[in-house]
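ingest -> fold -> write
write: protein_1
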Amino acid sequence: MRVSHGPTRRAALAAGITLTLVATAPVAHATSEQRPARDGSLVLVGGALKDTNTEIYGEIIDRAGGSGARIGVITAASVPESQDPDAADPDRCSNSACNGAYYAALFKKHGAADAQWIPIDLDHIANADSDAVVAQVDSMTGFFFGGGDQYRYVQTLLRGPRQRDSKVLAAIRAKLSHGAVIAGSSAGAQIASGPDMVTGGESYQALRDGSAPGYFDDPTRLGHLPRGGFGFLRSALIDTHTGAYGREGRAYRLAADTGHDRVYALDENTAVVVDHPGTTHEQLTVLGPNGAAVLDLRQARATTTPAGWTLRGARYTYLTDHDRYDAHTWRVRPAADKLRLAPGNTAPVPANTDAFCSAANPDGKAYSLRGTARALAQTRVQLAASATTFEAAPRFAVTFIKSDTFTAWSVDGSTADTLVGLSVTIAPR
């Protein structure tokens, strides 16, 4: 079986889906059914979750009750069977039903007592208001939202222009508020967003052209949904596949355009575990081989001149395995096995002419911008370093600066793993 974890970066996010938005007024306050949960927890994965990642699957199962865990699998972000030309082939299918069966089997393999597909997709939208499916949801102790296109979750589980909860989503929200865990990967993590959920876009085009409310056939155009997703996490914007697809630029631009002061930018095969979401005790813990960036725009200022768009005063923090982050105080607590890094490298930071690993560059490398940031942290001969975009006209430069409060943390004493508080400027060059 072939599982689709999310859209390819060159493809449109979902063929045949159209979203038209005509208003750009400020987003209304959350409805009563969209209030943040207070007792449950979230496990949000940046996409490409490997079947062998026992740490993350185990975390989800543990939070759902351990050996007694019952996981409801929602894969409505996938194409339905009616749109999958390989639906009849179990080795090639990539639709909601076969992906749901796949994840259900995987959760059982990792130790859950039971895992079941929740039969909701574009072929079965009415099931989201079925009392029988609500009863199925009520029997679960945790939920996993699969990847694909997050707007399909809006289509299947929300109702009307005000995006009211369907009966099933209301039941899942109630389970979360009473202690259940909700997990998701790629689109399944994106849909946890509150207002201004990203719908697509590439970093260079985002910096050059800005964002707009909507969902666009052009996959490079930065779009967002003003009313957002399910609103399970509202302390920041969420982006996924960040380092692998070079999405840091689009994340900074979307946050600046929409007035958000923070983005959680999640990397692949890695999770942020969110305890006490929506409260003053909200805390994030990173699990996995990559990490999660916290993009801080509290002191940032964006301007546009004839030369192009500029962002000054932003910050970049990169958290890795078992680091903790307090969302209310913005405080980082590096993992216990990490020590403060004293930079010892005397080599200059390598040149980087493709900051966002452009799809137009056949030699582009994933995690490019993170590489420049870490190289700067490790050298003692530079206080600043820049990476430029592959595309020109204009060409943008991302400049990292070691501020007085910047710190780096290391497991081995020489490699920068965790970075806290690099100053960031993005400007045309």
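write: protein_2
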Amino acid sequence: MKKLLLLAACLLAACKPADPSNASGKPKVALVMKSLANEFFQTMAEGAKKHQAAHAADYDLVVNGIKNETDLAEQVGLVEQMVAQGVQAIVIAPADSKALVTVLKRAKDAGVLVINIDNKLDADTLKQAGLAVPFVGPDNRAGAKAVGEVLAKKLKAGDEVAIIEGVTTAFNAQQRKAGFEDAMNAAGIKIVSSQSGQWEMEKANGVAAGILAANPNVKALLCANDNMALGAAAAVQAAGKAGQIQIVGFDNIAALKPLLADGRVLATADQHGDQLAVFGIEAALKALKDKASPTDQQTPVDVVTK
């Protein structure tokens, strides 16, 4: 009987999940991003990896993301995997401002610290879930307004423009659209269309082509990220309107720089993607060390032109 009890104890010990913090003596942080096909999130991932390499004695890092911007089920699954792996903190750029709240509530109930970056979680949905999650990121509305103001100086009151939005359920997409609207309305410029390109180049290309065909007097396309600005620029070129239509974006990805240099794109906003995850990671590490609840933190966003 004694041998059986000992055997049972050994089996239970073997089945118990390993605690990564006990194994290495340092916290394990998970970075969960949106589409890794988007250069912005590739840059974010590289910035996080460089930070961890420079602070290897302080924490371990798991980096992952989803295949496309709208694969919510995959991102929910990633959060669940990170909780199962026993991470101490999750730094997440949610693909949807509402749909990820439930799984993040489960993560927090399991003792995992959650930090929200890039796309802010919906305040009402958080409140309904009884969940408090700090947001570490830029003021997207202010950034988009600043980009829009650069464009407004190239136009005149009464000119027609169109907006190519991100995923409409994403808070940062909503805020960037609002910022563009703020700048256009203040300048008396007419917004004749606002459609979603779902953050993706190919989809934005089709949306832009449709807008140009339906609105021959459009003077500018305001794109809520640079991926979509690239798609819009290709549509303008294909329509034979290069040099006639201004384009602005948001993110300052490397692929956009040649278009800024030669004038195909007028301006974009740099929210310092290589540091955005780092800001969130540092907030998580400080909270874990201090055993304190982190607070919201606004990060910089700057206008970039030629």
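write: annotation protein_2
Residues 24-138+273-299 form a domain with the Rossmann fold fold (CATH 3.40.50.2300).
The radius of gyration is 22 Å.
pipeline exit 0
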